[in-house]
Amino acid sequence: MAVTSNIFPINRTFLFLTAAVIAALSAAAQQPSPSLSTEAQRAYMQGDIETAKQKFTMILAEDPNNVTARNYLRDIARTQAAEAAAGGGLRKQLQILMIPSVEFKDATLREALDRLKELASKASGGKVEPNFVLKPEVNAAAPVTLHMSNMPFTELLRYIGQLTNADFSVEQYAIVVKSRADSK
């Protein structure tokens, strides 16, 4: 019996430790990997909102009670809704859109804007196709002569505005073209 009493405490300790390890492994398996959370947060901080959104959604699929992922997704949704309401989504796309080369020689404002729409579509792989709405007071026949390379789309608009006395306002679904005299 003395031998049995020495073995019994070891077996009980062994069983307790085994159960603790199994519980810890089970809990770790239910938690999203720290690297996925880190990747999601890094993507968010770098402005890659779509990747961040995708990774935070994966985290919530693994752990529906993950407060961090819920908060980030809530913030992303709020920001995207505000940008959409203010035309910010289109504005942001146009600010980062680079046009490799553009050349206008005695083109009208209308022709220049039509060509810019084509160039934006081509440069973005069809993701950005800005629509232009010209107010009636805008001189659509104003001449545009311009040659530029590797310019952000919004800078091209600024230069064209200077040449044609026009102002451009990025709205939710279109770029509104106004006469500078009426914009003041």
Q: What do you see in this structure?
A:
The protein has helices at residues 2-30, 34-45, 49-62, 67-86, 88-96, 109-123, 153-164, 180-183; strands at residues 98-108, 132-134, 143-152, 166-170, 175-179. With 184 residues, the protein is an alpha+beta fold. It has two domains: 2-85, no CATH class; 91-183, 3-Layer(bab) Sandwich (Phage tail protein beta-alpha-beta fold).
Q: Architecture of the largest domain in CATH?
A: 3-Layer(bab) Sandwich
**Radius of gyration computed on alpha carbons:** 29 Å
Mean pLDDT: 82
Annotation, overall tally of beta strands? 5
Please provide the ordered H/E string of secondary-structure elements: HHHHHEHEEHEEH
Secondary structure topology:
Blueprint: H1 2-30, H2 34-45, H3 49-62, H4 67-86, H5 88-96, E1 98-108, H6 109-123, E2 132-134, E3 143-152, H7 153-164, E4 166-170, E5 175-179, H8 180-183
Parallel strand pairs: 2-5
Antiparallel strand pairs: 1-3, 4-5
Helix pairs in contact: 2-3, 3-4
Key attributes of the depicted protein:
8 helices; Phage tail protein beta-alpha-beta fold; three-stranded mixed β-sheet; alpha+beta; 2 domains; two-stranded antiparallel sheet; 184 residues
